[in-house]
Amino acid sequence: MKYRVVIEPDEDGVFVAECPALPGCISRGKTRAEALANIKDAMTWYLASLKKHGEPVPPPINRIREPAAGRIHAVVQGIPRVDKQRACFR
Hints:
4 strands
């Protein structure tokens, strides 16, 4: 499943990544690449938590739209694999 991710620089000089389809699924990084890697990890855990608790999983995107000025959109594959050694918070 693919979800849209929005990456924006914030006033502190870091990049904030957000997945609008997954409310509250936000991460950050010192670079765009780090923010993207971090949001992929956050999305994986978010989706795993939804499935674990029997909650509905939001539908994936079906098309790409142009990002607003200053924003970067990326489409990432949500892979709900869970490492049993790590805690899943919801």
